[in-house]
Amino acid sequence: MRPRCRREYVDVAAAAFRVVEGRRVEATILLVEDEHSIGQLVRDYLKDEGYAVVWVRSGEEALAEVTRHPVRLVVLDIGLPGIDGFEVCRRLRARSEVPVLMLTARDEEADRVVGFAVGSDDYVPKPFSPRELAARIKAILRRTDPRPPHEMLVLGDVVLAREAREARVAGLQVELTPREFDLLCFLIDNAGVVLGRERLLEQVWGLEFPGGTRTVDQHIAQLRAKLGRPDLIQTVFGVGYKAAGR
User: Fold this and answer.
1) Quick check: 20 pLDDT over 60?
2) Residues of the chain with CATH 1.10.10.10
3) CA dist., res. 52 & res. 64, Å (int)
4) Per-residue pLDDT reduced to its tens digit, 127-167
5) Which regions of the chain carry the CATH code 3.40.50.2300?
6) Cα–Cα distances in Å, from 38 out to 25, 31, 34, 57, 79?
């Protein structure tokens, strides 16, 4: 029998100053996982890595708890009782830009595509190693760290405001997903440099993504369509992509 659903809290006020093995708490992670053994394993490993962890076992609890804690990232299982992970992510994204990393027992392309469509930032299929999960979390947090408000990226009439995470083309705002924004930032940061698909996966997704390099092609196609500037991101056949030189 599955254990009765319950919330496992941290003292958030204390967590801000807590020291784990000589380190300050890295960030507060909201873990949404109904499998007790997996949830306990992930919670304990992330705590050992220096994170404060709020563990809940349903989508309804996740939507309530994300507003009660200074959550920096959500680790979200897809196969939840009641509201599934896709719907939780969709509702989170409607009101927040908090990064979401999805967990699933299925490793199918259709699930990955749906996950990205509803706004997830990364995707880890079960079974997974806690070490890999922690590495992906660190990569996402690194990419989404606040930048100085004046830091802008400009290429042609495309302007990116990093702190606000806003993209404008010819002065008009363009809605990008978090992953699309990070990918475009990295391309413009390296304007004129040819970037292989594997390097884009490593730098933007954090580690080798289980969906392979095709996910890069899909995100590039989405960026081109949204920006309306097909020549801004150029294909280098057999290698990868580059943003047009400044």
Assistant:
1) no
2) 152-243
3) 17
4) 888 988 888 888 788 777 765 545 788 899 999 988 888 99
5) 12-143
6) 22, 11, 8, 11, 13
> What per-residue confidence (pLDDT) applies to 15?
37
The Cα–Cα gap between 3 and 22 comes to: 34
Contacts of 19 (CB under 8 A, 6+ apart): 25
Residue 231 has which token pair?
């020549």
What token pair was written down for 170? 């010819």
Q: Would you say residue 123 has pLDDT above 90?
A: no
Whether 52 shows a pLDDT value over 50: the answer reads yes
* Class of domain 152-243 (CATH, top level): mainly alpha
Tens digit of pLDDT for each residue in 64-94? Answer: 998 888 899 999 999 898 899 999 999 998 8
- Using left for φ > 0, alpha for ψ between -120 and 50, and beta otherwise, residue 74 falls in beta
Architecture of the 12-143 domain = 3-Layer(aba) Sandwich (3.40)
Residue 57, number of CB atoms within 10 A of its CB: 25
Identity of the residue numbered 21: E
